[in-house]
Specification:
By secondary structure, the protein is mainly β. It has 2 domains: 29-131, no CATH class; 145-226, no CATH class. It contains 3 helices and 17 strands. It has helices spanning 56-62, 95-101, 126-131; strands at 29-32, 35-40, 46-48, 51-55, 67-70, 73-76, 79-82, 84-86, 90-94, 104-109, 114-119, 147-150, 159-165, 170-179, 182-187, 208-214, 219-226. A 7-stranded mixed β-sheet has the order 10-11-1-2-17-14-15. The chain has a 4-stranded antiparallel β-sheet with strand order 3-4-9-8. Strands 5-6-7 form a 3-stranded antiparallel β-sheet, covered by helices on one side. The radius of gyration is 17 Å and the shape is globular. The chain starts with 28 loop residues before the first strand and ends with a strand.
Length: 227
Amino acid sequence: MRFTRGLVWLALLGLPGRAGAQAQPGEVFVHFGPLAWVKAQTALPRVLGGRLLVPVTEGCDLLGLTCTVQGDGVNVAGQTVAAHRLPGNVLLVPLGALAALAGQTVSWNAATRRATVSGGIGSRGWRLALAQLPAISLPSAYTGPLTARWGAPESGVPTVALTVTAPQALNALTMFSKAHGQLSTTGSSVRGSADVKNTFPGCRGAHACTLPVPRDALWVLAFLTAK
């Protein structure tokens, strides 16, 4: 899978069949409930030593955790999670360990090569994004394979185009972005008003669908439905 311009992380190292095995090239798809994680600001998550690792800042924020970096570890609610340091001083931590501290779980589907975070309570991180969606739309979520491409930023323009592509024809697309501490929503689920219309036409059966997202978003989650 090929990425162009930006940190989009749907193509990762493959998850090994046993702990401690060497990771093999492949694709890993990560979802928070029905929401696909399609962009990260700091680094690309990956599998190392049989563990799915995520960047500290994005991972903690998505899981609604307050994390403090201490050396080569991360303190969460008085507990220390060991971290892996990448060149460039980027820290990665195990997604499963963070999820457990947030009262959430991570499941792995070997057939589809998809990791899914579920559970938890409250309305922080990805659960705040999920709460913006009409409940009636959740059963129709598309959670299959997809790729994501981040367009080139333009001077003076606060957004960039983020395009997702799937093997199935797409119907609706909503993107949730976290930037400067605020959650923003674009796409099909945005409710318009008499003064401000939602002009997004949906994906109209296309395999590729594009929406603008803040260029400095910490993370972006996508909710899709297919034809």
